[in-house]
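task queued by scheduler; priority normal; single chain, no ligands, no partner chains; default sampling; output format set to structure tokens
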Amino acid sequence: MEQKYKIGDVVVLQTGSLSMTIIGDRLGDDPDSGFCFDGYYRCAWFNEAKVYREIFPQDALKLVARGSE
């Protein structure tokens, strides 16, 4: 699976959510090519003073803003 997003991108859930930042991607072990993107991203967001982190599938996310390089 090809990655749509990169670390630092701001995304929301396709169904709507607070803005979240991509903080990592997950790598699966492919016997033929070694480690490769497995279709999931680690995201973080704030709600008031609390930080939340969760893993979401790429297809559940929608880009809001591209992270700076």
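post-processing summary
- Residues 10-61 form one domain.
- The mean pLDDT is 88.
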